[in-house]
Amino acid sequence: MHDQTPARCNVVVLLSGTGSNLQALIDSVNQDAGANPARICAVISNRADAYGLERARHAGIPAAVLDHQAFEGREAFDAALVELIDGYAPDLVVLAGFMRILSGSFVRHYKGRLLNIHPSLLPRYKGLHTHQRAIEAGDTEHGCSVHFVTEELDGGPLVVQAVIPVQSDDTPATLAQRVHAREHQIYPLAVRWFAEGRLRLDASGALLDGQALGASGHLIRP
Ligand code: GRF
Hints:
The longest helix is centred in the C-terminal third of the chain and has 24 residues, at 172-195. This protein has helices spanning 20-31, 51-58, 74-86, 104-109, 130-136, 172-195; strands at residues 9-15, 38-45, 63-65, 92-95, 114-118, 141-148, 158-165, 199-202, 205-208, 211-212, 218-220. A hairpin with a 2-residue loop joins β9 and β10 (211-212). The protein starts with 8 loop residues before the first strand and ends with a strand. An eight-stranded mixed beta sheet has the order 3-2-1-4-5-6-7-11, with helices on one face. Strands 8-9-10 form a three-stranded antiparallel beta sheet. The mean pLDDT is 96. The chain is an alpha/beta fold. The protein is globular and about 45 Å long. 32% of the residues lie in helices and 25% in strands. It has two domains: 1-110, Rossmann fold; 117-222, Formyl transferase, N-terminal domain (Rossmann fold, 3-Layer(aba) Sandwich). α1 (20-31) packs across α6 (172-195) and α5 (130-136) crosses α6 (172-195). It binds 5-O-phosphono-beta-D-ribofuranosylamine. 5-O-phosphono-beta-D-ribofuranosylamine binds at residues 15, 17-21, 96-97, 117-119, 144, 183.
């Protein structure tokens, strides 16, 4: 009999804040540890007060802090961050609310093994205040996106997007809450695809099971 379980996929998660996406990843891996090859082997934050670090410790995952303020400039911080991350021998690095712009050398180092989640239907609303911008524009649909990270901010090849309707009485806060709930579904899904070897990046873009994911990635509607 052959062992069908894919090889273990070491995942390092970077965050700066609450870490609800980290929690969703922890829960999804724990729920199906026998079949899901993803293993979160470390959580790293640039902020010592990030609640996500507590979540990691509670789950028995090594949690480390690398304070960007202790470094002179982005390149120096990113070089130290690479060294810290690589100490955990990651197959995948996951940005989960990591509030730092990463240098080109960092992004190139993790090319094809660096994912981010963004609270909008990219390419719409790169950057901050996405929920407010969607409401102000009168959009009827909003959502979230997981993408491979490239040197273009919030611009890498899309993996999966979840779409939600915008309601007429939505505020940025109510919209954010519903988008967040969808983030907690699509990030574990994308990480699992990667861990299973189904998701990869090649010169043409993101591929799932060898098929091009195209301009919007895998689209999940309500
Ligand atoms: C999420 O909205 C994510 O899309 C963005 O940062 C936020 C992180 O939230 N990149 P949390 O810390 O996972 O709750």
